[in-house]
């Protein structure tokens, strides 16, 4: 300790730091790497061998599979609505045995539906449904019902809804409205009445206002939102 203090005193304090005359643009991190992955995927063709080869070379020097980088790249591609690239990237990730989560499956299902690949979307849904069954989240049923509603495939809608009721999964308001609309178009007024009686419109809904979760009464024209809000913290 004594020698070290002598050396510092002899050098008249620590060495001064001068500003660098050059600046590096090579930032190391998951954000910059995910951006490079997005640029790499966008520049590829639709040939499977070329896509998989380019992605394999992109992660060739990684000791572990860069799952976080791929997830961030998928989020960016989803915002930009690059559905074909999302499908390519997720299928390549699955071929490596990585990222097989409910979130990835739903992203792939949504991309297939948005890209108009109905048969592939149905095949993926049936595979997930048969594998997970009771633990399948409600958003998968909602996505398939919405897809069939937009395509006018009413019988398929009823099959998905029957599976939901059998598994005890309660539909949300949008599904009830779509089913009620189809029942009215087909003249099934008795089923429409049963649907409305079993799943009445909710009196309350939950929103986030200034970072706080609050409960708001639905369809109250006489009251303002400030009067209708009741915070869960006060209950």
Give structural attributes.
235 residues; mainly alpha; three-stranded antiparallel β-sheet; 12 helices; extended; disordered C terminus
Task: Summarize the structure in words.
The chain has 235 residues and is mainly α. The chain folds into three domains: 31-100; 125-201; 203-235, no CATH class. The protein has helices at residues 2-10, 30-42, 48-58, 67-79, 83-95, 102-114, 118-132, 138-151, 154-167, 173-185, 189-198, 225-228; strands spanning 204-209, 212-217, 230-231. The chain has a three-stranded antiparallel beta sheet with strand order 1-2-3. A hairpin with a 2-residue loop joins strand 1 (204-209) and strand 2 (212-217). The termini are far apart. Keywords: Repeat. PPR repeats lie at residues 137-171. It comes from Phoenix dactylifera.
Shape: extended
- Which structural class fits the helix and strand makeup? mainly alpha
Mean pLDDT score, rounded?
84
**How many individual domains?**
3
The total of beta strands comes to 3
Which runs of at least 5 residues are low in confidence (pLDDT < 50)? Answer: 1-9, 220-235
Radius of gyration: 27 Å
Fraction of residues in H or I helices: 55-70%
- C-alpha end-to-end distance: 62 Å
| Widest sheet, order of strands | 1-2-3
Assembly state (oligomeric): single chain
Summarize the helix and strand pattern as letters. HHHHHHHHHHHEEHE
Proportion of beta-strand residues: 5-15%
Q: Give the number of helices.
A: 12
- Summarize the biggest pleated sheet: 3 strands, antiparallel
